[in-house]
Design brief:
Blueprint: H1 11-14, H2 19-29, E1 43-48, H3 60-73, E2 77-82, H4 99-112, E3 117-122, H5 127-136, E4 142-146, E5 153-155, E6 158-160, H6 164-175, H7 180-190, H8 202-213, H9 228-247, H10 251-254, H11 257-270, H12 275-287, H13 293-300, E7 304-305, H14 317-323, H15 325-333, H16 349-353, E8 372-374, E9 378-380, E10 388-391, E11 402-410, H17 413-419, E12 432-435, H18 456-459, E13 467-470, E14 482-487, E15 504-508, E16 513-516, H19 520-533, H20 542-550
Helix pairs in contact: 3-9, 4-5, 5-12, 8-11, 11-13, 11-15
Length: 576
């Protein structure tokens, strides 16, 4: 005996033999669809964030055609619709300000339209989490197809990595070690094709974690954007979403607590971006899975660094692809992996990774012979970050992971830019740079400025890393001893708002502590002054105001408070 197939959601629009059915079908027939397209075939929405403003996704129109081919072949009807694109390198003040707006657009586009399942086409940093968050709040059968990484960068006979080498070259120019002409020459060689950053930045991290969550077919993260195998993957993704609709495999059946644990384990193994922490926390809030900041530290300790990619290593995503990609990493995790977790393929993670192989041990290590020690993300606590702060130890300087120094404070990003190269800045190599006003509310949007460039006068002395503390984020391509996501942020009244230049800060990475070494009475006095003198927000209307008024803090994912959770996919009222 088999269960009777569940009626398709789309039949409520296309299956009615009345005025409303006439309207729904007739206007769609205007696009050239034949009569049989409405005779019980699954309607598959293709949510496409294509844009010419972002190299990461400039080829998604082409990939969408291969998805459609797969959908038609499997007996479905593909209908492509647009969603906001969030180019990390182009948007001001920061793409993160608009992640939740994308999530709202995706959620309501899916819910309002007569579709039975959805393929999410994205790539750049905030598109993948934004699309997943929106889809999770509707909970239809859902599968992700990422745009893939760009080809390895090339400059003067060497491979160069997106972002990572930008930061390195920029500091070299400021220190006088690289000419401006060479710096500008590297531009053309760094981004040689469509696709996301070729380092293990946020985009490739999120694509890898999509695989770990079970939300894509294998090798979603590593096939390069221009590679013909990504087109094949698109075709197969189109095949699979039709079957998922027929089997009623909804997103909530895949994105479980086990799936999140796998994502955290893979995140540690690949040396993933710190931004993934905030995105996974937000996604968990949408699907109702208990997940905390502490889980990243505790679960991540189970796994050493297995992937030798920038910024934690030396290779790039193209090399990762040829070495075996995420399936090979998951196979190396062995019994640590939550192998029983289901994937969109219809198979468990253990079944999916069983046949994977590693082809290059320089790129992907083993649990017995890893690339580096247990790293993941360290979650810090203390009076400076009572709700937590994070640090990526694999990208930090080991000698700075325990440090005590005097704060050099910048009240906002403008203050930082105005003074960082001042010869009289009261900073030496033992100082701790502190940046305020860059959290979710403060910037607004929590930009990637936490990896502050160092003072020019110290670069000239050969200093290449310092402890830096902020309520900001940093690019997943960045590196350094950078303490991020301090919560609560300064603009929400966190202790960070009270730090003054000259204050001593104690940082104990292995002990997971971050303390402002100022007595409580003095902090109380400073807080009273801060409350009296804080300026009102400059943003009084539109999206900025809605965001500032409702955004939550980094330790819970920086979602908007009224978006947490999900609503039914059912919409009972007609439009006419």
């Amino acid at each position: 005996m088999t269960d009777k197939p569940k009626p398709l959601r789309s039949t409520r629009s296309y299956g009615k033999l009345d005025r409303d059915g006439f309207i729904h079908r007739s206007w769609m027939k205007g696009t050239g669809l034949p009569e049989h397209a409405f005779e019980g075939r699954p309607i598959i929405g293709i949510c496409n964030t294509w844009s010419e403003l972002v190299t990461c996704q400039a080829h998604l129109r082409e990939l969408a055609e291969y998805v459609k081919r797969g959908v038609w072949e499997a007996g479905g009807v593909p209908l492509e619709f647009p969603a906001m694109s969030l180019p990390e390198t182009q948007m001001r003040p920061t793409a993160m300000l608009f992640r939740n707006l994308l999530a709202m657009e995706v959620e309501e586009s899916i819910r309002a339209n007569p579709i039975d399942g959805v393929v999410l086409l994205g790539g750049c940093d905030k598109t993948t989490p934004g699309q997943l968050m929106g889809a999770a709040s509707v909970d239809l059968p859902t599968i992700v197809l990422s745009s893939g990484p760009m080809l390895n960068g090339k400059f003067q006979g060497q491979d160069i990595g997106s972002g990572t080498d930008v930061w390195r070259f920029s500091e070299a120019v400021r220190a006088g070690d690289m000419s401006l002409a060479d710096f500008l020459s590297a531009e053309s060689g760094m981004s040689r094709s469509n696709g996301v950053c070729n380092t293990m930045g946020t985009a490739s991290t999120m694509a890898s974690l999509v695989e770990a969550l079970g939300m894509s077919l294998p090798n979603n993260a590593s096939f390069p954007g221009p590679d013909s195998r990504r087109k094949t993957l698109a075709h197969l993704t189109g095949n699979r979403i039709v079957e998922m609709v027929k089997q009623d495999i909804r997103l909530s059946r895949i994105v479980t607590r086990e799936a999140f644990e796998n994502a955290i384990l893979v995140h540690a193994a690949i040396g993933g971006s710190t931004n993934a922490v905030i995105h996974l926390l937000a996604l968990a809030g949408r699907v109702g899975v208990p997940l905390t900041l502490q889980d990243f530290d505790e679960l991540g300790r189970e796994v050493p660094l297995l992937v030798n990619l920038m910024p934690s290593g030396k290779f790039l995503m193209e090399d990762f692809c040829y070495a075996g990609g995420v399936p090979a990493v998951m196979k190396e995790l062995g019994t640590v992996l939550r192998g029983g977790a289901m994937t969109v393929s219809g198979h468990t993670q253990a079944e999916m990774s069983a046949g994977a192989q590693c082809w290059n041990r320089e790129v992907i290590g083993t649990m017995e012979s890893p690339i580096g020690p247990s790293s993941g993300v360290w979650v810090l606590r203390g009076n400076l970050c009572p709700n937590g702060a994070i640090l990526k130890p694999s990208a930090a300087s080991p000698e700075l992971l325990t440090h005590r120094g005097r704060a050099v404070v910048f009240d906002n990003i403008e203050d930082y830019h105005a003074r960082i190269d001042d010869p009289d800045l009261p900073a030496d190599e033992t100082s701790i740079l502190v940046l305020k006003g860059c959290g979710p509310k403060g910037y607004p949007g929590m930009p990637e400025v936490g990896n502050m460039a160092l003072p020019r006068k110290l670069l000239a002395k050969g200093v290449r890393d310092m402890v830096r503390v902020s309520d900001a984020r940093m690019s997943g391509t960045a590196y350094g001893t950078v303490i991020l996501h301090v919560s609560p942020e300064a603009d929400a009244g966190g202790t960070l708002a009270l730090v003054e230049t000259g204050d001593e800060i104690g940082f104990d990475g292995p002990g997971r502590s971050l303390e402002l070494l100022v007595d409580d009475a003095e902090l109380l006095r400073r807080r009273q002054v801060w409350e009296r003198t804080r300026a009102p927000s400059d943003f009084t209307r539109g999206w900025y105001k809605l965001y500032i008024d409702t955004v939550m803090q980094a330790d819970t994912g920086a979602d908007l408070d009224f978006l947490v959770g999900k609503s039914s996919s059912e919409v009972l009222r007609e439009s006419h």
